[in-house]
Design brief:
The complex is a heterodimer of chains A (123) and B (175). Chain A has helices at 7-24, 28-38, 46-71, 80-87, 93-98, 115-119. Chain A is an all-alpha fold and 123 residues long. Chain B has 175 residues and is mainly α. Chain B has two domains: 1-98, Rna Polymerase Sigma Factor, Chain: A (Orthogonal Bundle), CATH 1.10.1740; 100-175, Winged helix-like DNA-binding domain superfamily/Winged helix DNA-binding domain (Arc Repressor Mutant, subunit A, Orthogonal Bundle). The longest helix of chain B is centred in the middle third of the chain and has 26 residues, at 61-86. Chain B starts with 7 loop residues before the first helix and ends in a 6-residue tail after the last helix. In chain B, 38% of the residues are buried. The chains are: A mainly alpha (123), B mainly alpha (175).
Chain lengths: 123, 175
């Protein structure tokens, strides 16, 4: 009856197989080269960099276009009268204080409402 | 390398050093199909170098890498099945149960061992490969296969007994 091999016998067979496999093994460089070749195109480093550059370029161009369009937009027309009024010299404060009915000479019990308003004009 | 984050250069160097052992393990995971093993190894190397599989130093680099190769081989097998399902007329069908490549049959001892291994369960085959072929301990093999040490030891003992019986049936004698 055949006696089964022990651990050493099994080990010897595995070693023989390992040697045969090693003889058939592709080189590391060949495996790496094929690995890089099989990498999908969208995962190559150039693609995200290119996409990033393109996106930032488009954003910059859009910003420039917006700036130009805002700059050349028609400005609101200001009426000449409004402009003259806004740029006129203000009335001196002393005149305003001496004007009757403005409250500056009001006494106790006197109607604080200027007479010009009650009567519809200067008294 | 344990405990540190390896650079790409270190990773490449480590992969280069373990390439031969990785090839043997990939062959074992791919039912001795050389073309599949080659593809699995390429995908595994890409995963490692692109950081898709990250070594965190919880085990030795070899143990971790073998785990990556094993998972990649499982994914590859699933994709092959899907591809064969969608394109049954493409000519190349997945055949995970085919025991070995024809060119290895020329070598008597290797062929006998492969025939005997084909009679074992996949788990027993993987465990014996890791222990006898890759010279790993049972606990290291357990980490790679994702099982407890006790389970790995059981598979190892049963697998060894079954393999010895299969070899004896094929006329390989002990001392």
């Amino acid at each position: 009856m055949t006696q089964p091999p022990n651990d050493d016998g099994i080990q010897g067979l595995f070693r023989a197989l390992k040697q045969e496999d090693a003889a058939q093994a592709p080189t590391f460089d060949a495996t790496m080269r094929k690995a890089v070749e099989r990498r999908p195109w969208w995962r190559t480093p150039a693609i995200p960099i290119g996409l990033g550059l393109a996106l930032s370029g488009v954003t910059a161009a859009a910003a420039v276009v917006l700036m130009i369009s805002f700059d050349s937009a028609p400005r609101p027309q200001v009426a000449a009268a409004d402009l003259a009024q806004s740029t006129a010299q203000p009335e001196p404060l002393a005149n305003l204080l001496q004007r009757p009915g403005d409250g500056s000479s009001m006494k106790f019990g006197e109607n604080p409402i200027p007479k010009r308003r009650l009567l519809g004009g200067w008294e | 390398m344990a405990g540190t984050t390896p650079t790409r250069l270190h990773l490449e160097q480590s992969l280069r050093e373990l390439h031969e052992a990785s090839w043997g393990w990939a062959l074992s995971c791919c039912a001795r199909q050389a073309q599949d093993a080659d593809e699995v190894l390429q995908k595994s190397y890409l995963k490692v170098l692109e950081g898709k599989a990250r070594f965190e130093g919880r085990s030795s680099f070899r143990t971790w890498l073998f785990g990556v190769i094993r998972r990649t081989a499982q994914e590859h097998r699933r994709w092959s099945l899907v591809r064969s399902f969608w394109s049954p007329l493409s000519g190349r069908e997945a055949s995970p149960e085919r025991p070995h490549d024809d060119r290895f049959e020329a070598h008597e001892h290797g062929a006998l061992l492969l025939e005997a291994l084909a009679g074992l369960s996949a788990r027993q085959r993987e465990l014996l490969h890791l222990v006898f072929y890759e010279d790993l301990s049972i606990s290291e093999a357990a980490v790679i296969l994702g099982v407890s040490v006790g389970t790995a030891r059981q598979h190892y003992e049963r697998g060894k007994a079954n393999l010895a019986a299969e070899l004896a049936r094929r006329g390989v004698e002990g001392p």
